[in-house]
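The instructor's notes for this session suggest beginning with a concrete chain rather than abstract definitions. Hand out the sequence below and ask the class to guess, before any prediction is shown, which regions might be ordered.
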Amino acid sequence: MSARPEILFLAHRIPYPPDKGDKIRSWRLIEHLSKRFRVHLAAFVDDRADFAHEAFLKGVCESVFLASLDPLVAKARSAAGFVTGEPLSFPYFRDGRMQRHVDEVRGGDLAAEFAFSSSMAPYIEPAKEGRPRIVDLCDADSEKWRQYAAETAGAMGAVYAREAQHLAAAETAIINRVDAAFAVSESEAAIFNARAGAERKCDWFGNGVDVDHFRPHADRAAPQASADVVFTGAMDYRANIDAVRWFAAEVWPIVRSKAPQARFAIVGARPDNVVKALDGKNGIVVTGRVGDVRPYIQHASAAIAPLRMARGVQNKMLEAMAMARPVVATAAAAEGIDAREGEEFILADGPADFAASVLWLMSERKRGDAIGASARARMKAAYAWPAQLARLDAAMARLGL
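After discussion, reveal the predicted structure:
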């Protein structure tokens, strides 16, 4: 029996543990690809605690190279982009140790090269003859910076606008150069494909959810900080910070005026100071990192996704829906999810509508349970990871992989 072919997989963040959006997707890719290929993984680590998972990854991959990334040093390094005319995110992730290691691995006999995120694509330049290059862009990150620019005044707004412009051009150039490029949803791919200068099409495959891990259990105990309403996510991420701040300021007071004992839990690691300041006020609890988010989701009357700035697919929605809980989401949060509004999730954008939806779910638990059951059925039918990764497999087959 011949040995499995080898591939290089580059990630801007260590793909384990899968506890936030990009790491969930990159881990599922690694797990999937390692069944067919010997994977040489090279990734950055921006949280030193994650080095503890190196041994586990070495048990999955052919080789593992992890380079520490100090965010303060990387931010200083990113300023070089103002001189070179490139997106600031490219020099942020430019590292001599990583480049030397990648060059060494690329000198071997590889079947393909896979870069996860636009920031890692420069490492697989120039192309090696006869070796397919694949890039998973995930979200249209340039659009995120455009949204930030629209919400930010002054010098930083100008910096964000510059990043949006330069990164959009870089994304188009990457798609035009590589053999296959992917986005996280059809709508994100459409953004790439509609741009001026797009010569090749960006394909897509969606995020999935582990429907076995995220399933309700009748005997799962409620957490100490159990709440009626729950938000989950990394709480140092600007879009999540903006979401809970808006909900706490504009929506939650309406809910509490009708239900004075209602509790709202913000569950996620590394809460920003703005988020920490909400803890203990008006029935709000900020948990920080927890070992398991599932009890918080299962025992809530509603999970919420009140994002006003959003890209791609919201894993927080997929997980809550897989847990059979009803989700109230803004249009921005629900953009990349194929589910029936009103039957499998509830759409609400303004404060009054959002509050009314939350209050309805708090008072009509059986109706909420019915929506949750439909949501879980949708996740099992369409969002299990094998169903999503089938699109990737088909594209790789076209490349002879």
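Then share the key points. The first strand starts at residue 6 and ends at 11. DSSP finds 17 helices and 13 strands in the chain.
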